[in-house]
Amino acid sequence: MTILFKNNFIGIFSIFVHLFENINNEEIYKEYYGKQPVEECIVALFMMEVQMIRRAYECFFVEKPSPNSKMFITHHIVGITYYLATGLAVIIEGIWNLGVFNKDQFTSFPPLKNFINWNTMIAISLFIYASYHQNVLHKHLASLRPINTSNVPIYLIPKGDWFNDISSAHYFAEILIYFSFVILTKGMNLTLWLVLIWTIIGLSTIARESDLWGKEKFGEKWPNK
């Protein structure tokens, strides 16, 4: 939870705090929840939808996890919560402009020319670029486990594409994807900065553990990247 130093809460959870407050802070909430334009909300929602659909497709039809791999239930819950929270985070700071607080406020779809600006173009380009490479990297990881040996633990050093330069390249691509959301909002969306920081910390920790495991299993063959 992030604190705005006016004794008011901002961020994902502040909307729930607002429901239980008796004082009238309408102007403060309007100032915060209305600062993200409708155009950015629409593009961010579309990008997030593409990201979730692609990742769901890869989980079901691309990735080939080891039969011995296990996930703690807490990790599963954190993962689901993360995507639910991120889906809200991409619009939370523009939610006032979407008519959520005022049912009588109608939000029409903006003209297409409003979407043509430098931050939207750069954000979408980076999003597509990073998403494409992450998909390629995930397919490459899946190819390391042949179909006829999918039930046998096989460990190989991934090579090709970004793996030639970065050992955990698929995690790096994920970070770039969420950085594109920050670019979309011109760095003005604090909630998306928190999402990006969470992503960097979480994936960096996992990448570090994977690197230690690789060095332990493959020794000098494991690349130092």
Mean pLDDT value? 81
Task: Kindly provide the radius of gyration, computed on alpha-carbon positions and rounded to a whole number of angstroms.
Answer: 21 Å
Strand order of the largest sheet: 1-2
In N-to-C order, the SSE pattern is EEHHHHHHH
Give the N-terminus to C-terminus distance in angstroms.
34 Å
Structural class, from secondary structure content? mainly alpha
Beta-strand percentage range: under 5%
Number of helices: 7
Q: Report the uncertain regions.
A: 1-17, 19-23
Total E-strand runs? 2
| Main sheet summary | 2 strands, antiparallel
| Portion of residues within helices | 55-70%
Gross geometry: elongated
Subcellular location: Endomembrane system
Organism: Funneliformis geosporum
Keywords: Membrane, Transmembrane, Transmembrane helix
Main location: membrane
What does this protein look like?
The structure is a single chain. The chain has helices at 14-19, 26-33, 38-61, 73-89, 118-143, 169-184, 190-218, and strands spanning 2-4, 8-10. The chain has 225 residues and is mainly alpha-helical. It has a domain at 37-69 and 110-221. The chain has a two-stranded antiparallel sheet with strand order 1-2. A hairpin with a 3-residue loop joins strand 1 (2-4) and strand 2. Helix 3 (38-61) packs parallel to helix 5 (118-143). The longest helix is centred in the C-terminal third of the chain and has 29 residues, at 190-218. The two termini are 34 Å apart. The relative contact order is 0.13.
